[in-house]
């Protein structure tokens, strides 16, 4: 049996960068001692506009600056990790919370690369302190969710491309036709898989496996699993559904 099937990551911490959010586009909660901040809520559109470069020459935004510094390349996966920074939609803080997303920054090519478009694959994720969303949803839950999805479909959601998989309906109520391996499991009981490392317990999320999206019966994964590491989360397939889960 092939034993070296793992995707091994080689992390490298880069320059710390900051975003200045304008007044009115964020909310915050103080710690019990009055210091700042337990968490910050930010308008997702404002946040994304300030994160990504408006042009290929921009060096002011975190992504633009990292690109020009050579700290992220088209051959790497970049993670922009923010402390307890949760995003809300449609200008309404009640429509919260986006704790992460994966995407890529598109830049035009040049003569050096044959004018092929450049895609800088990256994720935004929030580090989640304990007791904000519950005991199972903390630290690297969002980061692991987005990184797993990046490895499976780095361009799908950013392009608005769908139809990569048959339409599926997950136990948490998601109706999708893409390879979002984290979406199929997020929010379920025991959705995270605690792992102890370096004297600390982390909470990466369990992920759905490819056979589940391919409607394989039985699954060709090791042990006939549909989810990993917790194989008990997904034990049955989605019903066969038409477009939009009709």
Features of this protein?
three-stranded mixed sheet, 24% strand, globular, alpha+beta, 246 residues, 2 domains
Q: Short summary of the structure?
A:
The protein is an alpha+beta fold and 246 residues long. It has helices at residues 44-51, 62-68, 141-152, 156-159, 210-213; strands spanning 26-30, 36-43, 77-83, 85-88, 96-98, 100-107, 118-127, 168-169, 175-176, 195-197, 200-202, 207-208, 227-228.
Q: Taking strands numbered 1, 2, ... along the chain, how are they ordered across the largest sheet?
A: 1-2-4-5
What is the ordering of alpha helices and beta strands? EEHHEEEEEHHEEEEEHE
Distance between the termini: 41 Å
Taking the sheet with the most strands, its summary is: 4 strands, mixed
- What is the residue-averaged pLDDT? 92
| SS field, number of helical segments | 5
How many domain modules?
Answer: 2
Q: What is the total tally of β strands?
A: 13
Structural class: alpha+beta
Task: Bin the helical content.
Answer: 10-25%
Note the overall shape: globular
Uncertain parts = none
Strand proportion: 15-25%
The radius of gyration computed from the alpha-carbon positions, rounded to a whole number of angstroms, is 19 Å
Can you walk through the features of this model?
There is one protein chain. Helices cover 14% and strands 24% of the residues. The strands form five sheets. Strands 1-2-4-5 form a four-stranded mixed β-sheet. It has helices at residues 44-51, 62-68, 141-152, 156-159, 210-213, and strands at 26-30, 36-43, 77-83, 85-88, 96-98, 100-107, 118-127, 168-169, 175-176, 195-197, 200-202, 207-208, 227-228. The chain folds into two domains: 19-127, no CATH class; 132-246, no CATH class. The mean pLDDT is 92. A hairpin with a 2-residue loop joins strand 10 and strand 11 (200-202). It has 246 residues and is an alpha+beta fold.
